[in-house]
């Protein structure tokens, strides 16, 4: 059963999952009673970043981001995904606790959609919150593929009871365009870096997008998603502060004011802004080069005289996960774990000068899976021995941050966390969703080069 040279699978998990290919690749489109239906089509589309700046990328339903899917917690859905592209595709529903087959990771044995075929993803969405969906293909050195292109969108799981105390929401997904390799380095202090031509919220440069129009006194919930393939972003709304209410869609223990939000790849931040400073302001990245690359939105109050939107550089970087977790437990000793997993991340340079990643000295393809049993509680001890940050992601489960940089922090529930260069994180998780589970770095250039490990239920 060849894939006709359309290399899709990561080298890592060649064995064992081939049998899944084509399993669900049928086009039984009949609606099932009591089940919500959605359809996504993967096809090339011409996306206009600004007048005269067109990019041809793979997109869902001809738009970037793809349509926002609003699902209801606990209400089953069938999502038909048609693949009108020239290569196999999978859609991953990032942050949902669903079975491996619809999860959309080949390593977990998920269904693969061959060109011309349709796959039905059936699952019951949970937990509620800001999730997202995206392609789970690999790009290697082809920077037009995978998450370098346009295959991502918001997926909001509406809670059965909405606790939201806000007047309306704005969804903003960050993406970077026109990637090329800036440099690789053999120095252990550095990692390979990409250069990008443009950066956008929702596929549009600030100069081309309509302002976000607000009224004094309004409370606006911003849902930010970093859908970049590789880049971390720090954002600020001039003249205002954000109250962070959820991280990766999960409500935080102690909502807190900050002037800067930092999102590693795949992270989400929900933050409420009280609109109390009439004017015309720039909501944008603190990095001026990124603002020049187009990332940002004008926030414009009603009934004010028109002028030039104002950017104000925040005085200091106040972003810190630790702010939102409540009181830290003084000791982890009181908790009994069914297993502790130390994981050491290292960077290597191969004979071709390419960067490779290992966990505890082994590449993804050589690593045995971590073994868990249903209902068990486990502790990850992540140690980053490389000179760049990594957005670490666990499929199909949440984890709870307990410590960072050897300092205990209050519990924060996430599915992706940015580990700093030469830094450490401790996070616990409960094995409550049986089935093969992928752990990986969400930086596309790292995941494609082996930064991953499987977790298997015994
Ligand atoms: Cu957001 Cu393995 O993915
Ligand atoms: Cu990484």
How would you describe the overall organization of this protein?
By secondary structure, the protein is an all-beta fold. The protein folds into 3 domains: 156 residues, Cupredoxins -  blue copper proteins (Immunoglobulin-like, Sandwich), CATH 2.60.40.420; 154 residues, Immunoglobulin-like (Sandwich), CATH 2.60.40; 126 residues, Immunoglobulin-like, CATH 2.60.40.420. Helix content is 3%, strand content 43%. It contains 3 helices and 32 strands. The strands form 7 sheets. It has a 6-stranded mixed sheet. The chain has a 6-stranded mixed sheet with strand order 23-22-25-30-27-28, with no helix packed on it. The chain is globular, with a radius of gyration of 21 Å. The two termini are 29 Å apart. Bound molecules: CU-O-CU linkage and copper (II) ion. This is Multicopper oxidase family protein.
């Amino acid at each position: 059963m060849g894939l006709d040279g359309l290399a899709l699978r990561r080298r890592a998990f060649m064995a064992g999952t081939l049998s899944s290919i084509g399993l669900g690749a049928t086009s039984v489109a009949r609606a099932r009673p009591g089940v919500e239906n959605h359809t996504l089509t993967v096809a090339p589309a011409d996306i206009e970043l600004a007048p005269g700046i067109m990019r041809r990328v793979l997109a869902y339903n001809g738009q970037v981001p793809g349509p926002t899917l609003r699902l209801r917690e606990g209400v089953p859905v069938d999502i038909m995904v048609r693949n009108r592209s020239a290569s196999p595709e999978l859609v991953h529903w990032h942050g949902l606790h669903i079975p491996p087959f619809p999860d959309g990771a080949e390593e977990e044995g998920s269904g693969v959609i061959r060109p011309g075929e349709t796959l039905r993803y059936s699952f019951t969405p949970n937990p509620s919150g800001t999730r997202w969906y995206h392609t789970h293909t690999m790009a290697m050195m082809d920077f037009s593929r995978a998450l370098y292109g346009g295959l991502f969108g918001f997926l909001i799981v509406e809670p059965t009871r909405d606790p939201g105390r806000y007047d309306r929401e704005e969804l903003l997904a960050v993406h970077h365009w026109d990637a090329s390799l800036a440099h690789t380095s053999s120095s252990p202090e550095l990692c390979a870096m990409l250069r990008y031509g443009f950066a956008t919220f929702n596929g549009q440069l600030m100069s081309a997008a309509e302002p976000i129009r607000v009224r004094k006194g309004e409370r606006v919930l911003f849902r930010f998603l970093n859908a970049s393939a590789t880049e971390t972003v720090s954002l600020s709304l001039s003249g205002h502060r954000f109250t962070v209410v959820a991280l990766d869609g999960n409500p935080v223990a102690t909502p807190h004011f900050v002037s800067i939000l930092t999102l590693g790849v795949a992270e989400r931040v929900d933050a409420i802004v009280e609109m109390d400073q009439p004017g015309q302001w720039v909501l944008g990245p603190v990095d001026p080069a990124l603002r020049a690359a187009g990332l940002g939105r004008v926030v414009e109050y009603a009934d004010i005289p028109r002028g030039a939107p104002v950017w104000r550089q925040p005085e200091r970087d106040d972003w810190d996960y630790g702010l939102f977790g409540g009181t830290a437990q003084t000791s982890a000793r009181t908790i009994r774990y069914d297993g502790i997993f130390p994981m050491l991340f290292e960077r290597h340079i191969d004979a071709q000068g390419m960067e490779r990643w290992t966990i505890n000295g082994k590449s993804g393809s050589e690593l045995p899976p971590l073994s868990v049993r249903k209902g068990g509680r486990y502790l990850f001890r992540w140690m980053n021995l490389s000179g760049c940050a990594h957005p670490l992601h666990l499929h199909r489960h949440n984890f709870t941050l307990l410590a960072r940089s050897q300092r205990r922090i209050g519990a924060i529930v996430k599915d992706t966390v940015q580990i700093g260069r030469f830094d450490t994180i401790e996070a616990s998780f409960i094995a409550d969703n049986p089935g093969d589970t992928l752990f990986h770095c969400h930086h596309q250039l790292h995941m494609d080069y082996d930064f991953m490990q499987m977790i298997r239920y015994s």
